[in-house]
Amino acid sequence: MFKPSVWLLFLSHIVSIYGFGFRGFHYENPRELEINNTSRHIITEKWILQPLNHFDIRDNRLWSMRYYENDEFYNGTGPILIMLGGEWAITRGFLRSGLMFDIGKTHGAMMYYTEHRYYGKSRPVSDTEPENLQFLNVDQALADIAYFIEKKKFELDKFNESVIVFGGSYSGNMAAWSRLKYPHLIQGALASSAPVHAKADFFEYYEVVSDSLRKYNEQCMKDVKSAIDTVELLLSHNDGAKVLQKSFNLCDTPNITSTSDIGWIMNSIAEIFASTVQYNSIESNGKSSIANLCHKMMNSNIGNPFQRLSIIIKNFKCIDWNYKNFVTEYSNTSWNLKQITMRLWIYQTCTEYGYYQTSSNINSTFGTLFPLEFFIQMCTDLYGNYYSALLLDASVKRTNVMYGGPLPDLNRVIFTNGNVDPWHALSIIEDTNGQTPVILINGSSHTADLYTDLPTDIEELTKARQRIRLIINEWITLGKKI
């Protein structure tokens, strides 16, 4: 059967272009863009010992955190630039190309790319049983960064050089929050597409998705809604569920008595459009991802809107959209789980952020069948009864109290967002204190500013990168700690 972890090849293509990101439950792990560089400099994989628990000096357990280092341009007096890894396995990509690389080359910087605890090869515990996941949180991850910086400054014998951190998506949060929590170690941060406002019921996500489709073409949004309405109608009775199975080539007939099964199917369909909007880019035919998907959804030559949707979804192998199969697969606590990244990230959403992209808005284009309760049940099914609505509510409140929510008191942090990106709804899009540069890029999407300029980039994106370079250049030139 066609497992959820490998379904819909175009989704994996989209995610392979951009290396950051919150993803839906069917997205493949993000793979960073690897660009052949004329330099033959070897970027080395290294390891550093970290405390398992930074906040209990009686706990002397250590583990090895992975990072990459590029000293190709380091001149002995340049700044230290660090790309922060998030919920993915790091590669050498952002030490070979991209915005940070360009800035580092200009300023003779020492450049690093750190891997977030529990992700990639940075495995501090024996397995991912819920009790072993207690050290998977942003508090510990930020302390990892602080210890890393202290160690590297000691090794370089450079205690007064500026440190600038970069991050996108969740690691964009980390970039901003590391500056907030450790300003004596970090002199500036770029937080790209960073949803620093934790929110359990993130219904606004699909509002932005709908708006982005509507901005491209009103008819596209209408046809998507028509197709979704038909799917919901089919899921209201057994005969309709059988039609759905045949139309989408599902491995099993949907269980219409299970709200989790229904929610899983509707969420899966919605993610097709969400991922296209979130990672919108120019494709090989010169058109945007949104344009190409909408072209299929508006093509009346291939049937009604539901039939068009089925053509987009249907594959020669059956698609496993069975909720129980998902829970069984993702309950595997071994590091050998193919989609271990998603087991770990879902845990963080259950215990810190929420970020659940629900259908709670009554005017939702994508129906009403994956409300907040669907995601809370997922937390319980994957990790146990302790991971409940009460825990989620307390966790989200704690994150916002600890780090400022929608109003963090920051300076020397650049917040960049594309207005096409659904995550900008939880980020900082207005400068509230005069010291936090905010760049909202019209027509751009998720973390696009972190990459190297391309001929296909829109003018607003190119200008945004120019402004970012100017600001960071000023920070480096001043070389002052605050």
Textual characterization of the structure:
- With about 475 residues, this protein is α/β, with parallel strands linked by helices.
- The protein has 2 domains: about 5-30 and about 200-395, Four Helix Bundle (Hemerythrin (Met), subunit A); about 45-195 and about 405-480, 3-Layer(aba) Sandwich (Rossmann fold).
- Helix content is about 40%, strand content about 10%.
- It has 15 helices and 10 strands.
- The chain has helices at about 10-15, 100-105, 140-155, 170-180, 205-215, 220-235, 240-250, 260-280, 290-295, 305-315, 325-330, 340-355, 370-385, 390-405, 460-480; strands at about 45-50, 60-70, 80-85, 110-115, 165-170, 190, 200, 355, 415-420, 440.
- It has an 8-stranded mixed β-sheet, sandwiched between helices. It has a two-stranded parallel ribbon with strand order 7-8.
- It is globular and about 70 Å long.
- The N and C termini lie far apart (about 55 Å).
- Keywords: Glycoprotein, Hydrolase, Protease, Signal.
- This is Serine protease K12H4.7.
- It comes from Microctonus hyperodae.
Helicity, as a percent range: 40-55%
Sheet of most strands? 8 strands, mixed
CATH topology of the largest domain: Rossmann fold
What is the strand tally?
10
- CATH homolog superfamily of the largest domain: Alpha/Beta hydrolase fold, catalytic domain
**What characteristic shape results from the CA principal axes?**
globular
Q: Over the alpha carbons, how many angstroms does the gyration radius reach?
A: 22 Å
CATH class of the largest domain: Alpha Beta
Can you write the helix and strand succession as a string? HEEEHEHEHEEHHHHHHHHEHHEEH
Provide the β-strand percentage band.
5-15%
Average pLDDT taken over every residue: 91
How many domain units?
Answer: 2
Secondary-structure-derived class? alpha/beta
Number of helices: 15
Q: What order do the strands of the largest sheet run in, or round the barrel if closed?
A: 1-2-4-3-5-6-9-10
CATH architecture descriptor text of the largest domain:
3-Layer(aba) Sandwich
Are there runs of 5+ residues with pLDDT below 50, and where?
A: 1-19, 26-31
Query: End-to-end distance, in Å?
Result: 57 Å
